[in-house]
Amino acid sequence: MKSIALRGVPAAPANDQTASLRILLAEDNDTMRRLLAFVLRADGHEIVEARSGTDLLQALAGALTDQGELGFDAVVSEQTLPGLNGLTVLAGVRARGHSTPFVLITADLDVQEQVRLLKGVVLDQPFNTQAIRAAVATSTR
């Protein structure tokens, strides 16, 4: 895959061996969602976007496979979404027995501890493009 270098958006590290992933990205801020989607697409990932907790749940339900799997290699979600928050969605995913990697973006220390207990990866705010790439790579190993 050809590396893309744009001002302010560093290309993925040359030694990054992360395969192309199907990622569900939930972020209510349009500008931030487009930026995160752009960065992850530049690394070769397929991105499905959600704008709210309700959209996130609908995308998860719509992607269920015949075997009951979620149909995404990873989920990246902001904590504070309209409707359901990211932690509630993560807890529901885990309660249904799914182990799909889940990256939750939050600065709330109490939420961060709960995410870790649910076997999720925390992306602390504020973050940069390298941090989102690292969080996705860490969550899918």
Can you tell me about this structure?
The protein has 141 residues and is of the alpha/beta class. It has one domain: 3-Layer(aba) Sandwich (Rossmann fold), CATH 3.40.50. Helices cover 38% and strands 17% of the residues. It is built from 5 helices and 5 strands. The protein has helices spanning 30-42, 53-62, 86-95, 109-117, 129-139; strands at residues 22-26, 46-50, 74-78, 102-106, 121-124. Strands 2-1-3-4-5 form a 5-stranded parallel sheet, with helices on both faces. The longest helix is centred in the N-terminal third of the chain and has 13 residues, at 30-42. The chain starts with 21 loop residues before the first strand and ends with a helix. 33% of the residues are buried.
Rg, alpha carbons: 14 Å
Can you summarize the main beta sheet?
A: 5 strands, parallel
Architecture, according to CATH?
3-Layer(aba) Sandwich
Note the overall shape: globular
Share of helical residues: 25-40%
Key words describing this protein structure:
141 residues; alpha/beta; Rossmann fold; five-stranded parallel β-sheet; 5 helices; 38% helix; globular; disordered N terminus
